[in-house]
């Protein structure tokens, strides 16, 4: 039953298709109106133009890319203005897959959201898309909505997930001052079945290509409708995320007697979460940049992220901050990219574990001759009791 084909003849396959999924990326705008906040819809618009140009029969266009509320309407207006002879139905079917668990998320989703235009033809299109999912999902997992609800629900879901992480991270700062333990608070709060225990794990801050981008998108949308208080509410999640990263770097500097010049710090983990080589918006980038700016030298190791990506991430961050090119190069001279954990520990003053890789959890720290006395657990996932026997100081978040 072969039903998966590949082609690079885009025009022909568009014309043959009855349903077309647009799944291109929508990065945050780097110039023009909404710079640094709104989603750049250039790629979606290009797709819509190509579809309009290449179509000779009616089609359902599925908006799969995460895009701001109102994008469906925009796609429709591009399609209609470029090709008025063909009837296009726009359906929003947002993506809820997470990196590393995508196939499982597709086969066993919490829900599938399908939004369409409120008309007889809109209902028909929504039903056609729902039939695809009905092949393997029960009816109660398929939610049918209008176009705008579907688009907004995607942004809202990511904003809620990020909000939980910022909530727990903000409390970790309070725990450090007050003597409470964030892991105990998190499990006590999470046991309330109304709250639930997922996404309450303290960390150096959330990363990845989605949370920040989608919240900025939401904030931009609120401001567009003059809902400044609502915009500020969601923006605070990003402020706490930045605060957590700054706090972490400051704690490291404080622990090294407020002087990191000529000191080597081992950075273990660069990916934004384990089991991926993706480092977009990873907390490790900001933390390392802060430490390098303060004068430290870094030995960085990640099991999957390439050395060139690490250098590129730091360079790009500083370039967006308009740091002088000579200063960037002199800071990069203090970066050493290690091939394994052992190598990264050489001559270092402390270890910062920033990604929850199994390799770090399972590592036999005892066997290293060259280990420093201090280890920071940026994810509270290491076996603290075991480490306390080996290191003079084991510093976890929110303790
Ligand atoms: C996220 C959402 O989880 C998906 O549902 C969504 O479809 C996807 O964005 C998207 O919009 O494309 P993803 O970015 O792959 O998926 O990563 P997550 O597993 O959500 O993790 C995001 C960040 O939050 C990571 O840096 C992770 O370490 C951090 N995190 C997660 C915490 O700090 N604490 C937690 O308790 C959970």
Quick overview:
With 399 residues, the protein is α/β, with parallel strands linked by helices. The chain has helices spanning 10-16, 42-54, 71-82, 102-107, 120-134, 147-178, 182-190, 211-224, 228-255, 283-293, 307-320, 325-332, 341-344, 358-361, 384-390; strands at residues 19-22, 59-63, 88-92, 112-116, 142-146, 264-268, 297-301, 335-337, 350-353, 374-377, 393-396. It is built from 15 helices and eleven strands.
Walkthrough of the structure:
The chain has 15 helices and 11 strands. The chain is an alpha/beta fold and 399 residues long. The strands form 2 sheets. Strands 8-7-6-9-10-11 form a 6-stranded parallel β-sheet, sandwiched between helices. A 5-stranded mixed β-sheet has the order 1-2-3-4-5, with helices on both faces. The model has no long low-confidence stretch (mean pLDDT 96). The structure holds uridine-5'-diphosphate-glucuronic acid. Uridine-5'-diphosphate-glucuronic acid is lined by residues 66, 95-99, 158, 161, 165, 199-201, 203, 206-208, 210-211, 272-273.
Which residues sit in consecutive blocks of at least 5 with pLDDT less than 50? none
Side by side, the strands of the main sheet go 8-7-6-9-10-11
Q: How helix-rich are the residues, as a percent range? A: 40-55%
Distinct ligand kinds: uridine-5'-diphosphate-glucuronic acid
First-last Cα distance:
56 Å
Globular, elongated, flat, extended or rod-shaped: what is the shape? elongated
Pairing-aware structural class of the strands and helices? Answer: alpha/beta
Average of per-residue pLDDT values? 96
Described by its quaternary structure, the protein is: single chain
Gyration radius, rounded = 24 Å
H/E series:
HEHEHEHEHEHHHHEHEHHEHEHEHE
Strand percentage lies at: 5-15%
Total helical segments: 15
The largest β sheet comes out as:
6 strands, parallel
């Amino acid at each position: 039953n072969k039903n998966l084909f590949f082609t690079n003849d885009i025009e022909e396959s568009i014309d043959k298709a009855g349903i077309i999924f647009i799944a291109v990326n929508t990065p945050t705008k780097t110039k023009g109106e909404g710079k640094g906040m709104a989603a750049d819809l250039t790629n979606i618009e290009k797709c819509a133009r190509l579809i309009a140009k290449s179509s000779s029969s009616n089609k359902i266009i599925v908006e799969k890319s995460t895009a701001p509320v109102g994008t469906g309407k925009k796609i429709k207006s591009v399609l209609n203005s470029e090709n008025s002879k063909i009837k296009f139905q726009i359906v929003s079917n947002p993506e809820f897959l997470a990196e590393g668990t995508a196939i499982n998320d597709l086969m066993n989703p919490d829900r599938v959201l399908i939004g369409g235009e409120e008309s007889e033809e809109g209902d028909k299109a929504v039903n056609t898309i729902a039939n695809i999912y009905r092949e393997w999902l029960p009816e109660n997992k398929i939610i049918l909505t209008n176009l705008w609800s579907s688009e907004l629900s995607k942004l809202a879901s990511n904003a809620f997930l990020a909000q939980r992480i910022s909530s727990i991270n903000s409390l970790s700062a309070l725990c450090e001052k007050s003597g409470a333990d964030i892991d105990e608070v998190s499990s006590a709060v999470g046991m309330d079945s109304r709250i639930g225990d997922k996404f309450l794990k303290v960390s150096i801050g959330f990363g990845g290509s989605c949370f920040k981008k989608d919240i900025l998108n939401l904030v931009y949308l609120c401001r567009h409708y003059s809902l400044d208080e609502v915009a500020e509410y969601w923006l605070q999640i990003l402020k706490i995320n930045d605060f957590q990263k700054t706090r972490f770097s400051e704690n490291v500097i404080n622990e090294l007697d407020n002087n990191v010049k000529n000191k080597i710090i081992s950075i273990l983990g660069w990916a934004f979460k384990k089991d991926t080589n993706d480092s977009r918006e990873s907390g490790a980038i900001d933390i390392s940049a802060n430490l390098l700016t303060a004068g430290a030298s870094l030995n960085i190791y990640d099991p999957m992220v390439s050395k060139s990506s690490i250098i590129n991430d730091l360079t790009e961050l500083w370039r967006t901050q308009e740091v002088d090119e000579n200063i960037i190069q002199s800071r990069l001279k203090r970066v050493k990219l290690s091939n394994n954990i052992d190598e990264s520990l050489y001559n270092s003053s402390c270890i910062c574990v920033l990604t929850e890789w199994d390799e770090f959890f399972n590592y036999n720290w005892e066997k290293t001759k060259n280990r420093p006395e201090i280890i920071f657990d940026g994810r509270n996932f290491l076996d603290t009791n075991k480490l306390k026997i080996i290191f003079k100081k084991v510093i976890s978040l929110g303790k």
